[in-house]
């Protein structure tokens, strides 16, 4: 290799290092900016709310991800590095990125569970699929990081941790998560379509809660699937020096969208609570505080999932009645015959 080709290779590597640093800084800025934008809503709807699984997941997604991206930014811009530091830093970066994506998927499963009116079968199906996705992605991440050799290289303005010996099949890490996201997207679309068919129109029937759940879920799926696909293609086609570029944006997007999903539903709950007493029918309150009418498909669940996702008992009763609406319509048709 002549000197000219060597210099071009060095310049290309330097550009990739700068691009990686800038993307990390941009992703950190996105998370901090979103934190500032939604901090008032967080104080009102999260801090002042009672403790629940939903609140715990939100706080972990919010502050664990924030702490991880700040630490990653420190590692990217640290002046003095050693190979040992790079080993721990790259392992930390890999596992925290994977955990951040998994936390956001937990939030989305809570939304799907609410959309299906606390259907235990749907929950079991999602849990098994999620466990399989975690196991496969975690195994790929673990085996790759064990075989990786970190190298602290000198670059203009400091040093940079370069991963060496990355498997050419490392891109398969995104396949299980991408397939799981497509599965959740299918569940959300199926629920939205069945609700539309049984009620004619989500908007016309006034089911604003279902509209919010469906809208946020679909937006999340589209953005996350596009992000995962971008990561997969970059890891498959781009050089190893660009390996860390898509991870930072994936963490930022997962964190922001996951937090917005919970905040949107809790803000909707607060709006409904602030309505006048006459805005909610007595029949709706009765169905959620007393036993259901004889022969009704309405089944009271002992699981209190409302607090976890920001739904109150009245809203959960409406979601359950949406699920039972098709079967009730069939019975009504048979009786008319």
UniProtKB/TrEMBL annotation:
UniProtKB keywords:
Membrane, Transmembrane, Transmembrane helix
N-terminal signal peptide? none
* Source superkingdom: Eukaryota
Q: Which InterPro entries match?
A: DUF6533
- TM region(s), chain numbering: 122-141, 173-197, 218-237, 243-263
Q: Where is the DUF6533 domain?
A: 22-66
Q: What is this protein's record name?
A: DUF6533 domain-containing protein
